[in-house]
């Protein structure tokens, strides 16, 4: 059975590889804004799970053609802050405005997860869940913020910050699971695989020296 990651995210791929899984990668290309727009009154965890499941289902036919037995994983991360659910900032100005509000405050980085178990070309089980981690933002100086914005990193990531990249200098702390902030929650994924009758260790590659 192959482990399929329905994501272009280098963070998710790196996290899985470091945790012993070499996934098949299939980029879903899902129109996230359209899905969000179709859920105007949904709660934040409903939105991120819906996006995660849409990504997993978007690659299903393609995967089954090649791997009739597969575990397909979709994820979606957004920052819930100040009553807003925010993905990646579209522009530097938007990232700057958000950081002006985030600095010195806390937000919840929420990552929705969906797993589809496929046996003999048919979906035999599904499981979903959301990991929410409290993020306490530091107070970058104006010079620091401008340098961070100029790095380009904030535009590539949900919430305009990273924990494990250049953004780490500006995160004072978290309450919860760090892997969920980076892009895929390992403890939640372990539980979701158990829900569909599998275990992460079924997919572990041979230990490297
Ligand atoms: N390395 C790192 N990446 C982060 C962090 N926080 C968020 N990200 C990245 C992970 C994802 O690539 C991205 C969240 O956006 P999405 O959930 O829409 O995924 P993305 O569009 O990248 O790929 P996908 O839609 O799954 O094909 O932000 C962090 O703390 N560290």
UniProtKB/TrEMBL annotation:
Its EC number is 3.6.1.9. It catalyses: a ribonucleoside 5'-triphosphate + H2O = a ribonucleoside 5'-phosphate + diphosphate + H(+); a 2'-deoxyribonucleoside 5'-triphosphate + H2O = a 2'-deoxyribonucleoside 5'-phosphate + diphosphate + H(+). The active site is at 76 (proton acceptor). GO terms for molecular function: nucleoside triphosphate diphosphatase activity. The keyword Ion transport does not apply. It comes from Actinokineospora alba. InterPro entries: ITPase-like_fam, Maf-like. It is found in: Cytoplasm. Belongs to the Maf family. Nucleoside triphosphate pyrophosphatase. May have a dual role in cell division arrest and in preventing the incorporation of modified nucleotides into cellular nucleic acids. Its cofactor is a divalent metal cation. SUPFAM superfamilies: ITPase-like. PANTHER family: BIFUNCTIONAL DTTP/UTP PYROPHOSPHATASE/METHYLTRANSFERASE PROTEIN-RELATED, BIFUNCTIONAL DTTP_UTP PYROPHOSPHATASE_METHYLTRANSFERASE PROTEIN-RELATED. It comes from the Bacteria. Keywords: Cytoplasm, Hydrolase, Nucleotide metabolism. This is Nucleoside triphosphate pyrophosphatase. One of its GO terms (biological process) is nucleotide metabolic process. GO terms for cellular component: cytoplasm.
């Amino acid at each position: 059975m192959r482990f399929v990651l329905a994501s272009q995210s280098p963070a998710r791929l790196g996290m899985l590889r470091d945790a012993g899984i070499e996934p098949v990668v299939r980029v879903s290309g899902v129109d996230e804004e359209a899905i969000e727009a179709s859920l105007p009154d949904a709660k934040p965890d409903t939105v991120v799970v819906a996006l995660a499941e849409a990504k997993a289902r978007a690659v299903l036919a393609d995967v089954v053609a090649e791997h009739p037995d597969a575990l397909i994983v979709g994820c979606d991360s957004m920052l819930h802050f100040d009553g807003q659910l925010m993905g990646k900032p579209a522009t530097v100005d938007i990232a700057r405005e958000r950081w002006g509000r985030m600095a010195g405050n806390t937000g919840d980085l929420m990552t929705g997860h969906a797993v589809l178990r496929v046996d003999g070309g048919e979906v035999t089980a599904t499981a979903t869940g959301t990991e929410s981690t409290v993020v306490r933002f530091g107070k970058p100086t104006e010079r620091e913020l401008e340098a961070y914005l100029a790095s380009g990193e904030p535009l590539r990531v949900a919430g305009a910050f990273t924990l494990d990249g250049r953004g780490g200098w500006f995160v004072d702390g978290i309450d919860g699971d760090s892997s969920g902030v980076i892009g895929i929650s390992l403890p939640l994924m372990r539980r979701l695989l158990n829900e569909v009758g599998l275990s992460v260790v079924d997919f572990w590659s041979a230990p490297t020296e």
